[in-house]
Amino acid sequence: MKKQIGIWLDYRTAVIVDPKTRKTIENIVSEIEEGNIKGGARSKTPWGPMDKVSESKVLHRRDQQEKNYYENIKNKVKDYNEIYVFGPAEAKTGLVKAMTSDNSFNGQVMQIDTADSMTENQMIAKVSDFFKR
Predict the structure, then answer these.
(1) In this structure, is residue 123 part of a structural domain?
(2) Does some domain include residue 109?
(3) pLDDT tens-digit map of 9-29
């Protein structure tokens, strides 16, 4: 018997939906930092050098946070055979890339769809309708 699951996600949260019970299994909150780069300071010498925050370090930190977020989601859905991924942002493609590049992951991504922000009931209905086909 095939185990099916749906995942709605963006960079803030992921909602895992079971189409058979028509309920959300879990909400996963990401720890990805948002906002502008902060930091840097002037020296006490007038017109002196200024410390700055390295943009590459900020981008590297964000990449690591995304990897941890995707790994957390993969661990929650590792026992499922068929996975339906949908959501408004680029996060869904990043998750699918992480799933397909992981050789130990056994699930198959059935489809990726773009969907706007949705209520929990809309997510449940979309996942149920997808797996009824």
Answers:
(1) yes
(2) yes
(3) 999 999 999 999 999 999 999
